[in-house]
Every structure is written in C-alpha cells, then in structure tokens.
C-alpha cells in the first residue's frame, strides 16, 4: 500500500507545513553500532556511551537505533562544512560512460542539467581536490568549473 494513504489528511498537511517552513540542514550519518565504534576506538562501550551523551547534550550529534548524525554545529566545528558545486561539460558521445563513473565517486549528488553544462556535482568542501581530480581525469570530460558557496542568504 502507498505510504501516503496510511496518513490522515491532517498528518499529510503537517508534513507539507513542516517541509515549507523547515530549514534544510546538513548532517553526516554514521550507520554503525556503538559496539563497532567502541571497538574501532579501542574503548569500552560504556565509555563511548558517556562521550556520545555529552556530544548529544551539546548539540553536536543526534542518535537513534543504529545511527549517529553529526549536526550542522559539529560540521562547522570540524571545518568540513561547505557546499561546493562542480559544473561539468562532457563530450556528447561519452556522456553515458562519464555518468556511470561519476556515480561511483564519493559525492553528495550529481544532477544532469540543461544549459551550457551537462552535469552539476555537489561535494563536501573537504573532498573537493580529490573529487575534482577524479572528474577531470575521466575520458570524455571537456572541462569543469568549480563554485564554492560563501554564504546562504
């Protein structure tokens, strides 16, 4: 059954309202158990739980069953926050191959677009040099232009 039909009209109205009035925030999600993380760090599960509780109270993370989200506040602290867009021009006969290669990269998203470029890739600022090098080296890429978001108004 379609999930939309499981909601009352009021619940659907609430979702629409939250979407329209909500602010988009960036998060990074880790999908590992606390046991896995504690083992990787070489600490006890109890010690990890104490640290996570503090990070949660300070607003740096959100937690749930099987995931930990870094909040926008944590990303700002870590210095990796920043939106970067790479505009890519591709040789028409090579588009399919380039698109398939792009899908394999560690990027936020890639969008086919109309206009004077063929593709817009969104990446984390911390990964810009790596991704830009990989994209520029692909057979069929004619050129790239990079735009770093300075401020959201």
Structure in words:
The protein is built from six helices and seven strands; from the N terminus they run H-E-H-H-E-E-H-E-H-E-E-H-E. It is an alpha+beta fold and 153 residues long. The protein has two domains: 75 residues, Orthogonal Bundle (Arc Repressor Mutant, subunit A); 66 residues, Lrp/AsnC effector binding domain/regulation of amino acid metabolism (RAM) domain (Alpha-Beta Plaits, 2-Layer Sandwich). The strands form two sheets. A four-stranded antiparallel beta sheet has the order 5-6-4-7, with helices on one face. Strand 5 and strand 6 form a beta hairpin. Helix 2 packs across helix 3. The longest helix is centred in the N-terminal third of the chain and has 13 residues. The radius of gyration is 20 Å and the shape is extended.
Give a nutshell description of this structure.
The protein has helices at 9-21, 34-41, 45-57, 72-78, 95-103, 128-136, and strands spanning 28-30, 61-64, 67-70, 83-90, 109-112, 119-124, 141-148. It has 153 residues and is α+β, with helices and mostly antiparallel strands.
